[in-house]
Amino acid sequence: MIYGIGTDICDVRRIRASLERHGERFAARVLAEGEYRTWQQRSARWPERGVRFLATRFSAKEAFSKAIGLGMRMPMTWRHCEVVNLPSGKPGVRLHGELQRWCEARGLQIHLSVTDESDYAASFCVVETMHQNGSSCLSPLVE
């Protein structure tokens, strides 16, 4: 059963401007540890790729926060929501801390799609509740 749906579009130019204004502190505020390491690697090789990576993560977290109905208030935090790639390449969400416990208590599963073009990153998130038997009709949360 669908718990919530969220979508977000992010202007990559705004993310670039925030990075220019605040430097790595901006990325460190938005990205979980694993995302931050990936961002540093991509930025070192090709700075524009790092900006786009950060924009897609920003957009995905916004879409997720809307789908769960919390916005950016506890237990939802930027760093407790980590966007990862499953072995298939499909994007997924790994939760941490209180946000993970909050979602587990509600039996939530997360499905995410992200995309980007030169000036925009967009995300779509569907959050569902698990069936009575503990199974889901879609893919499970990332462990």
TrEMBL record:
It catalyses: apo-[ACP] + CoA = holo-[ACP] + adenosine 3',5'-bisphosphate + H(+). Its cofactor is Mg(2+). Keywords: Cytoplasm, Fatty acid biosynthesis, Fatty acid metabolism, Lipid biosynthesis, Lipid metabolism, Magnesium, Metal-binding, Transferase. Mg(2+) binds at D8, E62. Residues 4-125 form the 4'-phosphopantetheinyl transferase domain. It is an enzyme of class 2 (transferase). The keyword Cell inner membrane does not apply. It holds the Pfam family ACPS. Transfers the 4'-phosphopantetheine moiety from coenzyme A to a Ser of acyl-carrier-protein. HAMAP family: AcpS. This is Holo-[acyl-carrier-protein] synthase. The lineage of its organism: Bacteria, Pseudomonadati, Pseudomonadota, Betaproteobacteria, Burkholderiales. The gene is acpS.
